[in-house]
Design a protein that fits this description.
- By secondary structure, the protein is α/β, with parallel strands linked by helices.
- Helix content is about 45%, strand content about 15%.
- It contains 15 helices and 12 strands.
- Helix 2 packs parallel to helix 4, helix 7 packs across helix 13 and helix 13 crosses helix 14.
- It is globular, with a radius of gyration of 21 Å.
Amino acid sequence: MTTSVDPDLSPIYGDSPTFRMARQQLDAVAEATDLDAGVLDRLSVPKRAMIVSIPVRMDKGGVKVFTGYRVQHSLTSGPSKGGLRYNPSVDLGEVVALAMWMSWKCGIMNLPFGGAKGGISCDPAVLSLGEKERLTRRFTDEVLSIIGPRQDVMAPDMGTDEQTMAWIYDTYSMRVGYACPEIVTGKPVEVGGCIGRREATGRGVTYCIMEALAELNLRPHESTAVVQGFGNVGSVTCQELHQRGLKIIAIGDRYGSIRNLKGIDIPALAKHVATGKLVKDFPGAEPIAADELLTTPCTVLVPAALERVITAENAGKLACRVLAEGANGPTTVEADAILSRSDIFVIPDVLCNAGGVTVSYFEWVQDIQQLMWSESMVNDKLKELMLRAFHQVLKLSRDRKLPMRTAALILGVEKVAREKMIRGLYP
């Protein structure tokens, strides 16, 4: 057994609980495997982290300076790959943790990418479209030296979308002098985006849930679900589960939560939200307190919002049979210890939400080849890869009597570690 050397990184990454959680998970893998100590130390920290100042001229006059980050955890397996998020809570430690998880995710899915992540500390809800465009283009220019289709490829994340990716694509292309759609994924279909990319993460979550129900001999039409988050991942997951017969009985986001034990009309809720109204104001359900959402009795619980929402305080109160982690890092290490003693079937984030990066890979390949796939091809290949990874993790979990999260992390970490050992250390 090998354990990582844990130097005091707080001066660099700050007192980030998300980064500490990612490091603790890596240590758990080290205790369960025989990783080379030198490789483990390399995996414990990112290869590169860039912090940039982003001055933006605001609509009302004056200039405001934002702080942006781009972290590349590993370039061993190929170009680094990871989303770009706009959120007030973004800091370096959080971005490093997310980049690390992306490395394991790509390893589990056997994708030719390393992990990366980016973010800008801002509130996109209070920025105008023009301010967001200027922010995005200036950020792209500031990190231009470390991004590229063979270096680092961005994608949407919290607070960003297809339009954000289109601005990055255009900015990069203007600087290099030719159209380069493969610089980003998750962009509009009209400029080289992949059909089905926006829905990919939610569909991947759904494929994992349906497979877990089959393993547990639970019938979809007799099952219920609670979903935290109604953004890109949460809304698509709700729609996909609803189409397969599951009854969605509670949904919440940062503005409030609702519940209807007879089942929420998901198509009606989607139309309600599309008009600019809030989930909490949907007339087809009753409002509930935010802390009641995760503990609502159900078959499937899907946290699809922020990190660290399942904690030592509420883990013992969960009343679900399946926990499907649509968000990154929704369960703390302390909560994991509690869940490991329960009968809850956990589908860990690095497996459950890997659909997004998988279809991003499809998009990257299509852009390089200039040969676009049909939606059925995309969805069929996504399902094939998700189910293959699901059963690889499940088999390792059962064979070695390990929690599903540990099994998933072992598969991801060991793939990257093997590649580092084979490539050696330069110089």
